[in-house]
Amino acid sequence: MSKCGGKDGCCATVAPVAPAAATAASPERAVFLIRNMDCPTEEKLIRGRLERMAGVDTLQFDLIRRELTVGHRLPSIAPLVAALTALDMAPAVISSAQDVGGAALAASPPRAAGLPPWLSLAASGLAALGAEAIAWNTGREHSGPVLVLALTAIACGGLGTLRKGWIALRNLSLNMNFLMSLAVLGALAIGQWPEAAMVIFLFALAERIEARSLEHARHAIRGMMALTPDTATVQAPSGDWLRVAAAQVQPGALARVMPGERIALDGVVAAGESTVNQAPITGESMPVAKLPGDAVFAGTINQQGTFDYTVTAPQSQSTLSRIVSSVQQAQGERAPTQRFVDRFAAVYIPVVVALAVLVAIVPPLVAGADAYAWLYKALVLLVIACPCALVISTPVTVVSGLAAAARQGILVKGGIYLELGRKLRAVALDKTGTLTQGTPQVTDVLVLSGDERTSRLRCAASLAALSTHPVSRALALYWQGERGDAALAPVARFEALPGRGVRGEVEGGMLYLGNARLVRELGLHDDELAASLAPLERDGKSVVVLCSATAALLVVAVADQVRGTSEEAVAQLRALGVRVVMLSGDNTDTAQAVGARLGIADVRGALLPEDKLRIIGALAAEHGAVGMVGDGVNDAPALARATVGFAMGAAGTDTAMETANVALMDDDLRKVAYFMRLSARAHAILVQNIALALAIKAVFLVLAVAGYSTLWMAVFADMGVSLMVVVNGLRLLRGPAPA
Ligand SMILES: Nc1ncnc2c1ncn2[C@@H]1O[C@H](COP(=O)(O)OP(=O)(O)OP(=O)(O)O)[C@@H](O)[C@H]1O
Ligand SMILES: [Zn+2]
């Protein structure tokens, strides 16, 4: 297994093609629908062919949608089409700046015409069985009827495999189709006709079932999209409510939802109220109350009330569609295990072919053994060596894992994060907005020296009203609640001081509003002030001080509710053996008080954003892999520095969804532990599959050399393992075991 741990480490260098960023650098992009691409084998074939072409910069595969995006600098895409057609890939152009250059696209037919696949497969199976039966009953393998039935079986079930095998050979990309073709042709050549028929039929059957399984995993993702209704009830200019196609509705339109109806578009409640089941987006089963001003999401289910909402995004840009397309893109980027398996297969197949050749030639030549028997053994070896079980199992597992996460409201931005999750030994949690709700309320107002409460509070509120920081917002709201709309003072030269507070000129004098660090920097921190702050901070309250350039004037304390799920989330992380660290820009005593309530011993307070970044770096150096959970808005650098960055409450905010490696759609911190368990489970399944596949191959290798395995037994074993690993991978769709 790859020992690589970091996303900026060796992994990046083995990635065959860099994602999005590199694509953007290419002058031209062409997107193809590749109808005959449904497994990594075909991806490898295409990669091998196109990567060598001059003018082709990048290739991006999306096996779920069967799309290939080529970043290139060719004057026409005709050579691309020609190359894909030569690989029998039946390409269709989805989008390209240039025309096809006369290449006759329509002429490339989708996969084999004629009988429907299952029917021809059944015919192939019957013919193969018939050939076996006749050969067995008559005791003669080489009669006319046996030959006719065997050839029928191959014609009905095996032409696709033979054709792909031939294409693979011509492109010097030895894959399993090539191995099977070689085995079948070899069996025909040495007169094992019924066996040849059986082998090709079983292989075709296995391929078909595998394709269906991958389809199943893909469906789990596409199925999420099916949740959004096709139509929405929208108000026309005339004032009438009309039922229209949701895809046609523009942002700004007013839409109405009835009780029990699914919401068709993202929007903001304009009138009415209700509760909404947001499970399709966030995975949380408790309905959420919606009042005017609250955001609603396409695909979620309205409960009892009726309400109108203003549409904020077209259907194609809804949160749900962005989740789905992000998951689809994520599975196109290859996880480390997948790359390992690819590299393994690339070395392994040529080695096996060489070994088979040796087995066929050496014993007869050197020891005078029976040439026919050893040729047969060599063919069995070829079949056993088939790596489909290995090749197919990883994408199925990764796609299943991504889909299981998405269903829980966890958006994972790539298979690599699914693999890294289990390696996290330390997780840093932001305090405000992550462990706490981030909507604090004013609890205490202390006037220092003198007695001008109202005028000082007014100055503080005037500064606070200009900031969106939670502490400032609490203060501004408090003033509004106490004084109604009593006029705020005008503020000049307003400035935010990150990690400290704000400042601005009020009524001719410069005033500062901020934390203890700010007061200390102003040189106004003394024992008296410290004594008045201490009891508030010990209570876990955030304290800000209003200061002039020469004196501290007013202390305001705000208290933030700890989220109901935080304590359990911390306990779950600890149960996984993870070191939990709290990072906060708030005063140290405050942070420690909150940490004590949640069972977090390692609390770092009074941090500036660059301190957070440094601590993440230090934790990474100490533990290897470190996670960071924040809201993704002002802690983006720390999130980016972490091995896996988690953003909370991502459903509402675009930045959070974009900056994080893993976006949690709601505010439930327990999802971090869930994600880590899912990751561990995915890893266990990947290892099980690889071990299973290799073990069964090893057993049959011994049987084959000892002469106990026939060709069709070998195919049966190969098919059995392939199916077992696929079914094993699909189990991940149900998620990890509960905590
Ligand atoms: N605009 C502001 N208005 C009022 N106080 C502020 C402002 N900006 C910062 N502060 C004060 O500085 C402290 C640190 O702010 P910072 O934004 O770095 O951390 P935070 O995001 O509030 O907390 P955490 O790091 O726990 O999430 C805050 O707790 C607050 O006391
Ligand atoms: Zn196989």
Automatic annotation (TrEMBL):
Q: Which reaction does it catalyse?
A: Zn(2+)(in) + ATP + H2O = Zn(2+)(out) + ADP + phosphate + H(+)
Gene Ontology molecular function: ATP binding; ATP hydrolysis activity; cadmium ion transmembrane transporter activity; metal ion binding; P-type zinc transporter activity
Signal sequence, start to end: none
Q: What is its main location?
A: membrane
The cellular component terms of Gene Ontology attached to this UniProt record, alphabetical and capped at eight, are: plasma membrane
List where the protein spans the membrane: 146-166, 178-205, 344-366, 378-405, 684-705, 711-733
The subcellular location is: Cell membrane; Membrane
Give the similarity note. Belongs to the cation transport ATPase (P-type) (TC 3.A.3) family. Type IB subfamily.
The protein here is known as P-type Zn(2+) transporter
